[in-house]
Amino acid sequence: MSATITSIAHYLxxxxxxxxxxxxxxxxxxxxxxERTGISERRFAKEGANSDLIVPAAKECIEKRGITPNxxxxxxxxxxxxxxMFPSTACVVQNKLGIKNxxxxxxxxxxxxxxxxxxxxxxxxxxGAVKRVLLCGSDKMSSIVNFQDRSQAxxxxxxxxxxxxxxxxxxxxxxxDHILRVDGNGGQxxxxxxxxxxxPASHETVDKGEHYxxxxxxxxxxxxxxxxxxxxxxxxxxxxLTSDDIAYLVPHQANLRIIAATAKRMGLNPxxxxxxxxxxxxxxAGTIPICLSEWNQNGKLQKGDRLILSSFGAGFTWGSxxxxxxxxx
Length: 329
Ligand code: COA
What we know:
The protein is an alpha/beta fold. It is 33% helix and 23% strand. The two termini are 23 Å apart. Bound molecules: coenzyme A (COA).
């Protein structure tokens, strides 16, 4: 028995900010950003909360599956930018969609959020505990980015990807294997220090900018290159997969150089790598489901395609998934 994605959709806010936008007020250039990150533009939501990115994608996803909101019995939201500290964004989404008789929760694993939440959703389905999970990977990074810091302002964007996870009709399809890891020692390099119980909000935390992202870019970069490639190669070996067997690597979109290094270690040509970082930047938990949804929408995913999903993020958290795509185009 395996669990699989049976419907998928995404939502990106309409307002586009290209690299020249940052060059108007920060010491940076389009060339530097393109060369060091591969990002050309990103979307920022001018109003609303994270749940306002999720809800349109969720509605489309449910409609495409031909079911009603009440057919969902569990909602998981992977995010680091929840609407509130509590209640969970899963509760907000439930209420906005009017889903009855469901339960749900948020999952915090930063850029690995979707990968961790997908495995969680699949195991809940496989165990028989739930029938259909509304699985949301979504972040409104513009709510925590320091727009005065050129080394982080240019990296992130807002966006949501939503899918439905349920029992696979074919046990050889869907989520077939995973490798997931955390290393809390990495927390010092990428975090949001204040606002939780460690450092509750105060005038001092606001004055010091401690509600923004803190990032020491180079150690994050170095660990990401090694971590993402390691688990991607390991899952290939574990499942006797060669690069010829793989239709696509679906990598977290943090930096084009990290993606390229991972693909190289896996022996994959660039045409076998899903890349849309140039359009959306790093939408944290949104990147992987947005990629899957876009490729599916554009008819570039075929039933039976072998995919490796791969992520690295704050925590540190990282992981890979071996997935056989089980949706007809
Ligand atoms: N424009 C121009 N210069 C910039 C800049 C920008 N937007 N951002 C940083 N710089 C400068 C730095 O200030 C530094 O200047 P200095 O040498 O005078 O101090 C110089 O560029 C080199 O900085 P460095 O940090 O070595 O650059 P880098 O090549 O490592 O690229 C990141 C910086 C942030 C793009 C890169 O480290 C990165 O992508 N890290 C991982 C981030 C990530 O993935 N985060 C999400 C978690 S998955």
